């Protein structure tokens, strides 16, 4: 049992290193190109590039941030003229988060970097190993969700991890 715990601890540390490497790669590209965005702001933009006009709470759930943290991110993106809040016509209490033209255009610059990052990261990694990794992460995630661990607005374990994996694609 202790060996398994040590192996899992090492595995978790490796996952964190990979996450940090992804963030560092993107931060470097942003800095080299004079784009003043944090990785977290980019996560919000990527969410909106996939589905625009989401309620603020839906964006918060998607990027796994609490509503207060997301409000600050959206404020910063609004100041940079990348997103705007619009009133939800079906419920005035809600704001929909929309991309500006500048926010849409930024995708054309950033998406190739994301593609390059995944190309480099996946170089010499067999596809079956990646598929096995997805199964492994789904299992780990499911184990945690069985304990009632929920990340913000998630409803089911499989939906939660797949939603976040899609953001990373």
Secondary structure elements and pairings:
Elements: H1 2-32, H2 39-50, E1 54-55, H3 56-63, H4 67-79, E2 83-88, E3 91-99, H5 101-122, H6 127-146, H7 157-167
Antiparallel strand pairs: 1-3, 2-3
Helix pairs in contact: 1-5, 2-3, 3-4, 6-7
How is this structure best described in words?
The protein has 169 residues and is mostly helical. The chain has two domains: 2-123, Winged helix-like DNA-binding domain superfamily/Winged helix DNA-binding domain (Arc Repressor Mutant, subunit A, Orthogonal Bundle); 125-169, no CATH class. The protein has helices at 2-32, 39-50, 56-63, 67-79, 101-122, 127-146, 157-167, and strands at residues 54-55, 83-88, 91-99. The protein has a three-stranded antiparallel beta sheet with strand order 1-3-2. Helix 1 crosses helix 5 (101-122), helix 3 packs across helix 4 and helix 6 (127-146) packs across helix 7.
Can you summarize the main beta sheet? 3 strands, antiparallel
CATH class of the largest domain: Mainly Alpha
Q: How would you name the oligomeric state of the polypeptide chains in this document?
A: single chain
Average predicted local confidence, pLDDT: 87
- Low-pLDDT stretches are 160-169
Distance between the termini: 35 Å
The percentage helix is 55-70%
Structural class: mainly alpha
**Count of helices?**
7
Indicate the CATH topology of the largest domain: Arc Repressor Mutant, subunit A
What count of structural domains? 2
What is the element string, with H for helices and E for strands? HHEHHEEHHH
What would you say the CATH architecture of the largest domain is?
Answer: Orthogonal Bundle
From the spread of the alpha carbons, the general shape counts as globular
Beta-strand level of the residues, as a percent range?
5-15%
SS elements, strand count? 3
What does the radius of gyration come to? 18 Å
């Amino acid at each position: 049992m202790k060996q398994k715990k040590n192996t899992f601890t090492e595995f978790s540390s490796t996952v964190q290193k990979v996450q940090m490497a992804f963030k560092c790669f993107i931060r470097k590209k942003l800095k080299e190109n004079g784009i003043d965005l944090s990785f977290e702001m980019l996560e919000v933009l990527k969410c909106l590039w996939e589905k625009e006009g989401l309620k603020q709470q839906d964006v918060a759930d998607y990027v796994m941030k609490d509503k207060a943290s997301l409000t600050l991110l959206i404020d910063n993106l609004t100041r940079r003229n990348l997103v705007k809040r619009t009133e939800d016509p079906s419920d005035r209490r809600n704001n929909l988060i929309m991309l500006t033209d500048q926010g849409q255009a930024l995708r054309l610059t950033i998406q190739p970097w994301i593609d390059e990052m995944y190309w480099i990261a996946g170089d010499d990694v067999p596809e079956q190993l990646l598929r096995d990794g997805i199964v492994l992460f789904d299992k780990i995630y499911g184990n945690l969700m069985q304990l009632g661990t929920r990340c913000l607005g998630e409803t089911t374990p499989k939906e939660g991890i797949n939603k976040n994996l899609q953001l990373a694609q």
